[in-house]
């Protein structure tokens, strides 16, 4: 009987002002609902939060293995990416806009999407990157070393990292990363963690102008899908009123792995090599005073798969954020 009543209620005429007031009451009820220990955690007293941010991120990939009896290794790094963003939050509901100055100037053509939700009990990061601006080197015993210019290596990566905090009543992840809570006293928590990574790496040898010794190299593609489960620990340290220092580590052991490499027309499935891991580390420093706050935060993700006797791949993805905000 509840569904027809709700549908009928939505069909009744309602002025815009009454609708806004009703939505505001619902948001206020949810926002002020106390599911935490107020001695350790509190909500900001204001409803609105405006935050300016500067993000700097980067990525590196290393590989090593044996091919036809020849040892090879490579390392490539994406050019660091800087973005400016502005966020507005109303009682826990946030919207943001980010701009990349280099991309607007036509100097940067990569794409990256970051979504995150931090709550006291549960939270996650979703990071998607389509990058073509890698530079690096490749070495092989019988061929020597060659530099890899921009555009030769193309990488598409999706990372999802989630946590569950057992002590969410006293330990607050959002106090460090979204500032929707304030940590009043030091507290830590055991964390459950789950990770997912999907990546496709393409090496376009055919477009590289090199000497005759490299002329037989064929295009390569590596596809991997990994799921990891594990546990870690996070701690919010409050040395004095208005300060917060956060550190956490979430190591996960890969429990599902599907990886294969294609060279020319040949495809090879890589065997699972224990231990393969996905590790997420986070850190933050936050200063609150009056209705203002500022700080730095960092998220770092590391993944290793494979065996150096065949093919081993290591990925590192990081993001550093500086922010300043006003609570109104």
Proportion of residues in extended strands: over 45%
Taking the alpha carbons of the first and last residues, their distance comes to 41 Å
List low-pLDDT spans.
Answer: 1-12
The largest sheet, given as strand count, sense and whether it forms a barrel, is: 16 strands, antiparallel
Q: Could you describe the 3D structure shown?
A:
This protein is mainly β and 328 residues long. 11% of the residues lie in helices and 61% in strands. The chain has helices spanning 2-11, 16-31, 101-104, 173-177; strands at 41-42, 48-67, 70-78, 81-90, 93-99, 111-118, 122-131, 134-140, 144-148, 153-165, 182-183, 187-203, 220-237, 243-263, 266-269, 277-289, 292-307, 311-327. The strands form 2 sheets. The protein has a 16-stranded antiparallel β-sheet that branches. A two-stranded antiparallel ribbon has the order 1-11.
TL;DR?
The chain is mainly beta.
Throw out a few tags for this protein:
disordered N terminus; 4 helices; 16-stranded antiparallel sheet
Summarize the helices and strands and which ones pair or pack:
Elements: H1 2-11, H2 16-31, E1 41-42, E2 48-67, E3 70-78, E4 81-90, E5 93-99, H3 101-104, E6 111-118, E7 122-131, E8 134-140, E9 144-148, E10 153-165, H4 173-177, E11 182-183, E12 187-203, E13 220-237, E14 243-263, E15 266-269, E16 277-289, E17 292-307, E18 311-327
Antiparallel strand pairs: 1-11, 2-3, 2-4, 2-18, 3-8, 4-5, 6-7, 7-10, 8-9, 10-12, 12-13, 13-14, 14-15, 14-16, 16-17, 17-18
